[in-house]
Amino acid sequence: MMRAQFLIPVGVIALALGLSSVYTVDEREKALVLQFGEVKTVRTEPGLGFKIPLIQQVVKYDDRILSLMTQPLEVTPLDDRRLVVDAFARWRITNPVKFREAVSTGGESFAKSRLDGILNNAIREVMGSVPSTAVLSDDRTPLMNQIRDIARREAAALGVDVIDVRLTRTDLPDQNLAATYARMRAEREREAADERARGGEAAQRVRAAADRTVIELTSEARKQSEIIRGEADAERNAIYAEAYGKDPSFFAFTRSLQFYAESLKPGTSSLVTEPSSLYFDYDRFVKSLGPIEAVPTGETPAPAAGQ
Asked: What is the pTM of this model?
């Protein structure tokens, strides 16, 4: 009975030691077996592994491609135009032994901070060697490749490989954006004012041409109307003269009727004259008219002056 009580704890301890001596490596990981901080074994293949319990420990690192987003960084290109730049990098642990020596117990978080500094230095170096137009252009692939190559050389000491670097933002600083937008707005307003001025000038030319055309057409129409009116007056006078020559008494009668019609227009309230006046003696009135002349349009023959 006493022996059984002794064997059970021994068995549990042995089982625990046996389990602690076994470790697994995932296909997404790399593992280092450390003994008192010194690397004894490097496992890059997935599967089971064995270590000495209590003496050796296993440290695992991610074997996948990792990402890193840098903080916004102000750079000064060759033309001294300040820009705010941030980048996105892809990196991977390629040498876990060198990586362990470089980061110690800091792990991936410490490696990211080191990589962030390396990328910032590379960005400053490359951006400071080109004008801002090259940074702000659509094709920035050569610049990104230069940053990647510089960062890759520096990161090799960490046991990592910088696979790719992409610039995600290249903008002016906030304090410069307002001035830039104001300058752009002023430029657009100036262009709009120029366009309006040119449009107003063109409109003036069109209006002037239209006014000149109206005056010319009106003058020509008035000229033609005067010519036609003169021809009509001449023809009317000829008709009057011909009618008088054919029957002077009838023409005198029509003239007297026109005079009476004019003197007795609607609205005439009274007529003051003597009973012996020519107004009531037709024969004397007709004789007083004298020779018949052509009468302009709209006018009525009247008695001779002094009658």
From this structure: 0.52
